[in-house]
Malate dehydrogenase (Tagetes erecta), 381 residues
Amino acid sequence: MKFNSRNHLKDFNGLKAVASVNHNSRSSFLAKDSTAALQQSFTQRAQNQNRTSANAFQVQASFKVAVLGAAGGIGQPLALLVKMSPLVSDLHLYDIANVKGVAADLSHCNTPSRVRDFTGNDELASCLKDVDVVVIPAGVPRKPGMTRDDLFNINASIVKTLVEAVADNCPDAFIHIISNPVNSTVPIAAEVLKQKGVYNPKKLFGVTTLDVVRANTFVAQKKNLKLIDVDVPVIGGHAGITILPLLSKTKPSVTFTDEEVQDLTVRIQNAGTEVVEAKAGAGSATLSMAYAAARFVESSLRALDGDSDVYECSFVQSELTDLPFFASRIKLGKQGVEAVISSDLQGLTEYEEKALEALKPELKGSIEKGVAFANKQPVSA
Ligand SMILES: NC(=O)c1ccc[n+]([C@@H]2O[C@H](COP(=O)([O-])OP(=O)(O)OC[C@H]3O[C@@H](n4cnc5c(N)ncnc54)[C@H](O)[C@@H]3O)[C@@H](O)[C@H]2O)c1
Ligand SMILES: O=C(O)C[C@H](O)C(=O)O
């Protein structure tokens, strides 16, 4: 893949920004500068349709996105970023509380999508009807001293209930699971969808984009690289040592000392905890997560819109290893996962090989815990 960036002066509905954007890395959209990239998306699409950026808002917007847990720390900034997408016609915000105000506030932004709020179980079905992409950040976040698995008892049931409703109301939608522990909540979602008879493994995604965003940032800082050029695949899962950045596959090609590999790997694996400790009891990553989730939503919408060069890392059903779910780079298409990219796992360094073997027992345990939970509590009719 060729990386070729240049500076642009953007005029985005009155908002001016000097944005460093990348035109060839279709795989990395919000890996660049989120605001700039969203602006670029409007402007490029306007140009593609022979319009000026001034009337970029007339670009065809046709997809419906629902955010479940939309009034939360992730949900609110994520909703704002999705509201900026030129591809979204309808943005449905669901939460068990406080979502009316969030939707009223957001609805005043003069971007194309219509915003609607939905509260409580009775309104969940209407929220989900005919939705193309469902994003689920509903659930509780960590406090200092907790692991992501400590959230299982609360979040497993939340995800199960929400995915049941997704199965009943928009079984063809792309489903993005953010709620932790992702290593277990994605298998729970898969089992629920199977029990409902609508499981499509190509359309169920654990959102691990934040690991890639962090890896790109930390590597660029450490090696003094231009941030927008850096792309590091992150494989495995989304907790502790199951997060495995493949530094040897960094683009552009860069060499690391053994010490740098060790430091960077550990920092990327512990980045969530770094934020949890800095927030000191007020939750976990929300803003960077919203940014990462918006990137994954935009990539999904571009794939649904027919772009044929969309790549992201995600925790999906996989045959890359002996584990049933595994995060790796995937190619996204109209039908979801078009291909799981196996080449990243070839030619690993000894360090990466060992780390890959070391993560498997923990990841296997988390997957099995999710499957067992879902099968103990059959879905409601
Ligand atoms: N995948 C990742 O990389 C990643 C990154 C950061 C956080 N997370 C996870 O995302 C989740 C949310 O984090 P947050 O900081 O936004 O938490 P938060 O507490 O700020 O927000 C969660 C929201 O979910 C809502 N909610 C709870 N139960 C619900 C239900 N049954 N239906 C609908 N909404 C419901 C709450 O009302 C709240 O508004 C946590 O589990 C956290 O661990 C994942
Ligand atoms: O660390 C957490 O608990 C939240 C999230 O998984 C993260 O990586 O920031």
Remarks:
- The chain has eleven helices and 13 strands.
- The CA atoms of residues 202 and 335 lie 7 Å apart.
- The first helix runs from residue 34 to 48.
